[in-house]
Amino acid sequence: MIDVERISLHAQGAVVVGAGGGIGAAAARLLAGRGASVFCVDRDGAAAQQTAASIEARSGTALSAQGDVADQRSLASAFEHAVDRFGQVHIVINCVGVQGPLGRRSHEVGLDEFDAVYAINLRGAFLVGQMALPHMLERQYGRIAHVASIAGKEGNPNMIGYSTTKAGLIGMVKAQGKEYAEDGITINALAPAVIRTAFLDTQPAEVVKYMTDRIPMKRPGSVEEVAEMLAWMVSPGCSFTTGFTFDLSGGRATY
Fold first, then answer.
1. Taking the CA atoms of the chain, what radius of gyration do you get in angstroms?
2. DSSP labels for 2-62?
3. CA–CA distance from 214 to each of 154, 162, 194, 224, 250 (Å)?
4. In sequence order, which residues have a C-beta less than 8 Å from that of residue 178 and are 6 or more positions away?
């Protein structure tokens, strides 16, 4: 039998960064469905509010705020608001990420373009930890999960900013997992392959086919499948894994 208490998130406070759509919105709704009070954060404050409203429409508990991982002040304000309303933040899921320039080799990418990707994908993830970790250390409990990418393991060509920053995120998770391993805090990442999001719907059919042909299951993953994995990663049951990056690749796993 499944020990429901090990996966239940009842009476836990959760902050989902990037909750305005896609993976973040799916994760926020699933956490709420498992009992968490969810604070939805997104640089698009209206989108975050819509996700919170959809949770409340299902009798869940949710609040929202505008918060940009590239802006330390706005992110700090969102976390302070979450702590003030929930009392304790047990869970943080960071789903924020941008792809940056595509289809160009490294020497063709401008430094400003690379820096813009770095500011969100890696520096932003670092700031999320800066906001969450002092609070979790005081309470000797916490679960942090970042969404990385299979590109951070494989290194996708013509996506230098994205591949590099997601690889850096995986390295950060490894280091932080060790740093806080004795403090009741786990820090892990998830490396999805192609996921069916609104962005994928904008891509030419031949591009989608090229990407899915590399997946043994021959299909993209769904945001709900990503959310299920994230929900387990931040549950009480995921207690002896930290500093690790889980694959979610339909069989396209790399080590």
1. 17
2. --HHHH--TT-EEEEETTTSHHHHHHHHHHHHTT-EEEEEESSHHHHHHHHHHHHHTT-EE
3. 12, 19, 10, 21, 9
4. 242, 243
Question: For a pLDDT cut of 70, what percent of the chain falls above it?
Answer: 96
Section 156-164 average pLDDT: 94
**178 confidence band (pLDDT: 50, 70, 90):** very high
Alpha-helical regions (H) of the chain:
4-7, 22-33, 45-57, 72-86, 111-121, 123-139, 151-154, 160-179, 198-201, 205-213, 223-233
Who's near 26: CB < 8 A, 6+ residues apart? 223, 224, 226, 227
Q: What are the tens digits of pLDDT across the range 211-228?
A: 888 899 999 999 999 999
Q: Which residue has the tokens 């993830």?
A: 125
Residue with tokens 């595509």: 102
Examine the pLDDT at 25 and tell me if it is beyond 90: yes
Q: Between 223-233 and 22-33, two packed helices, what is the crossing angle to 10 degrees?
A: 50
- Asked whether the predicted pLDDT for residue 4 surpasses 90, the reply is no
Each residue's pLDDT tens digit, 89-114: 999 999 999 999 988 999 999 999 99
Active site residue 162: yes
The catalytic residue among 141, 162, 210, 255 is 162
| Predicted pLDDT of residue 88 | 96
Domains assigned to the chain: 10-194+230-242 (3.40.50.720)
Q: Report the distance separating Cα 76 and Cα 87, nearest Å.
A: 16
CA-to-CA distance for 232 and 148, rounded, in angstroms? Answer: 16
Question: Residue 18 CA to chain centroid, in angstroms?
Answer: 7
